[in-house]
C-alpha cells in the first residue's frame, strides 16, 4: 500500500485517481505529478514500485502544499479576512455564502437547518369594524374643544418687510 503525505492511497485505483485522495490534489494536478515523476497514469497504485513511489513522494513534498499545511493556510487566510473586516470576512463570520450566491432561497449548507417562524394572524373584517367603532366612541367622548383638529403647516410663513429690488 502506498502512503503519501500521511494518506493511504487505495490500491485498486489507477494512479491519477488514487492521488486525488490527498487533500489539495485534483485530477489535473495528479496527472501533472505523475508526468513529472515519469509514472504511467493508467498504472494501478499497487503496481507502483518503491522507486516510483519515492519519486512521487519527493515531487509532492518539494513543490506542492497538501493536507495539513494547505488546510492551515486556508484557515489563516479566512481568519485574516475576518480580522480586517472585509465583506468576505463578515460573510464567513456570520456563516452565510461568501461568493455572491442568493440567500432568499437555497444556501442551506451554510445556514443550516430551517428555523420556521409562525405567521401573523390575519385581521378579519369583524375585528377591523370593532376597532373602528371603538375609535369613534373614543372621539365622541372627547370634549368639543379637543376634537377640533389643528392644521399645522410644515413650512414656516415668511413675511417680507420690503419688496426685493427689481432687476432692470
Briefly, what is this?
The chain has about 170 residues and is mostly helical. It has eight helices and two strands; from the N terminus they run ββαααααααα. A two-stranded antiparallel ribbon has the order 1-2.
Question: Topology of this structure?
Answer:
Layout lengths: L2 E2 L2 E2 L6 H4 L8 H10 L13 H14 L3 H18 L2 H8 L13 H4 L13 H17 L2 H4 L21
Antiparallel strand pairs: 1-2
Helix pairs in contact: 4-5
Description of the molecule:
The structure is a single chain. By secondary structure, the chain is mainly alpha-helical. Helix content is 47%, strand content 2%. The chain contains eight helices and two strands. It has helices spanning 15-18, 27-36, 50-63, 67-84, 87-94, 108-111, 125-141, 144-147, and strands at 3-4, 7-8. A two-stranded antiparallel ribbon has the order 1-2. Helix 4 (67-84) crosses helix 5. The relative contact order is 0.07. The mean pLDDT is 85.
Which tags fit this structure?
two-stranded antiparallel sheet; 168 residues; elongated
Q: In DSSP terms, counting alpha (H) and pi (I) runs of 4 or more, how many helices? A: 8
Largest sheet: 2 strands, antiparallel
Physical arrangement of strands within the biggest beta sheet? 1-2
Mean pLDDT over all positions: 85
* Proportion in β-strands: under 5%
Run of helices and strands:
EEHHHHHHHH
Amino acid at each position: 500500500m502506498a502512503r503519501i503525505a500521511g494518506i493511504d492511497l487505495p490500491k485498486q485505483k489507477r494512479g491519477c485517481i488514487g492521488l486525488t485522495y490527498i487533500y489539495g490534489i485534483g485530477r489535473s494536478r495528479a496527472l501533472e505529478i505523475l508526468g513529472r515523476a515519469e509514472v504511467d497514469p493508467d498504472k494501478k497504485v499497487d503496481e507502483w514500485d518503491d522507486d516510483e513511489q519515492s519519486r512521487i513522494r519527493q515531487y509532492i513534498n518539494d513543490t506542492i502544499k497538501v493536507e495539513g499545511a494547505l488546510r492551515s493556510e486556508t484557515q489563516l487566510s479566512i481568519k485574516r479576512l475576518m480580522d480586517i473586516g472585509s465583506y468576505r470576512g463578515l460573510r464567513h463570520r456570520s456563516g452565510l455564502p461568501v461568493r455572491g450566491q442568493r440567500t432568499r432561497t437555497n444556501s442551506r449548507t451554510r445556514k443550516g437547518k430551517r428555523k420556521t417562524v409562525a405567521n401573523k394572524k390575519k385581521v378579519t373584517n369583524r375585528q377591523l369594524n370593532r376597532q373602528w367603532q371603538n375609535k369613534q366612541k373614543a372621539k365622541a367622548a372627547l370634549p368639543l374643544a379637543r376634537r377640533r383638529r389643528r392644521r399645522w403647516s410644515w413650512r414656516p410663513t415668511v413675511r417680507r418687510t420690503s419688496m426685493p429690488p427689481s432687476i432692470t
